[in-house]
Specification:
The longest helix has 19 residues, at about 20-35. The chain is mostly helical. The protein has helices at about 20-35, 45-60. The protein has one domain (about 1-64). The chain has 2 helices and no strands.
Length: about 60
């Protein structure tokens, strides 16, 4: 169900954000906040990968 729309509004030829993208964006906020507060060094690619991994985990649990 990772292609399910989070905001199913048709705008300018687009279907809207997927639920996976929405979950990833929320996870990214937490990862970035933690990274900044702990002075940790993490690359943009690592943040993106971790965000989508968390989104995928949330989608998997949602299907249980």
């Amino acid at each position: 169900m990772s292609d399910q729309q989070a905001f199913p509004v048709h705008y300018n030829g687009h279907e809207g954000m997927t639920l996976r993208d929405y979950f990833a964006s929320k996870a990214m906020q937490l990862i970035m906040a933690e990274t900044i507060s702990s002075d940790s060094e993490i690359t943009d690619d690592e943040v993106a990968l971790a965000s989508y991994r968390m989104a995928d985990a949330m989608l998997n649990v949602r299907e249980l």
